[in-house]
Amino acid sequence: MSLFRPEALRHRQGEWLGTLQLSQPLPLAWITAGVVASVLALGLFLAWGQGSRRVQVSGVLIPAGGLVRIVPPQVARVQRLAVQEGQPVRAGQLLMTLAVGDPRLAGAPQGQLQQTFDARLQSLADTEQQTRRVAEAQQQSLAQRIEALQRELQQLAQQVQFHQQRLTLAEQAQARLESLAGQQFVSTAQVQAKQEEVMGLRADGAALLRQRASLARDLADLQAQARELPAQTAQQLQALARQRDEIRETATRADPAAADRVLPVTAPMAGTVTAIYAGAGQAVSDEFAMASLWPAGAPLQAHLYAPSSALGFVRPGQPVRLRLQAFPYQKYGWLDGTVRQVAQAPAQATELARLPLASQTGAPQPLYRIVVTLSAQAMRAGGLAQPLQPGMQLDADIQLERRRLIEWVLEPLLGWRQRW
Fold first, then answer.
1. Residues 6+ away with beta carbon under 8 Å from 365
2. What is the pLDDT of residues 189-228, one digit of tens each?
3. Which parts of the sequence belong to the AprE-like beta-barrel domain (predicted)?
4. pTM for this model (two decimals)
5. Domain 53-65+298-407 superfamily per CATH
């Protein structure tokens, strides 16, 4: 008697392989439609989408026409400052006063001045004699060293000649031994010993030739120094002569009262004092500016300095995005501008040296100036308009060109076709 009913057993006997399940894949039409739609979307994106190529450069804000540099007319000393940085001034307003002349001569009698000038002239005369003596000693030393090297080169040339004769005899002996070894009159060891001797002589000859070349270079250097020494001495003597003439000219025009003469420095035009480079009591000369003035009504421009590699596609009218370092763009945004002028020649080194970004652009490659017109003269910060100031440093993104994405993708193929 079975524990299970016969009907249950028959039902289980037909399912020992498991239940049958039929899976129907996605229709082929749906897959084809999805692929076609994706390809069409990508094609439309490449055909209608656009991208731009940009170049990043650095620059500084400068008024149109540049800053006015206040330069002293002659060597002087700042006696008093009448203005401060950031102060607006009108044309003709006093900026500072200069004390002209040497303050050490103030109140000195004429006889004492003459003694001072005579002492300076005597010091220059002693220096000139010392320069001549040193030059003569150097010339004699060079002549002796040149003569010694020439003798050494002659001896070395004879040594090279004797060594060449020894090498020739050794090679002839080697040839005879090799001939006798072929007839088995001498042993192979004797031939190898002679070969080693010849190789050693060749190495010694090469060393002698290197030594002779080194001595020849030293001799050429000494001869060049001997030729240049008179010109160097003449330059030193000419500099001393110029100093002597200046002292004599100063002595001729010396006036003890000139040290007390005061020279006023006034603003050449209305504007704002942007910087003062000289303080009270500081000596100044006509080689450096004492202050800089921002002319009234002159709008600020961005002067960008780009290398030649980034200049090929820059044209007037191209849009520029400026990021002022004083106003982080993550918080205050960009300042828009437009390229107004592109320089055709590199900026001079003196121009770059006066810029606050000279330390950043200290690259040896030439830099070209790009003038950009600003869309605004202030930045919105905290709900207030913060006016821009000359000298502010900035970074700029210049949009060189804008193309469809398909043109960027096919550019290598088009370039290859044009080359071939």
1. 307, 308
2. 887 888 888 888 888 888 888 888 888 888 888 888 888 8
3. 309-400
4. 0.47
5. Efflux pump adaptor protein, beta barrel domain (2.40.30.170)
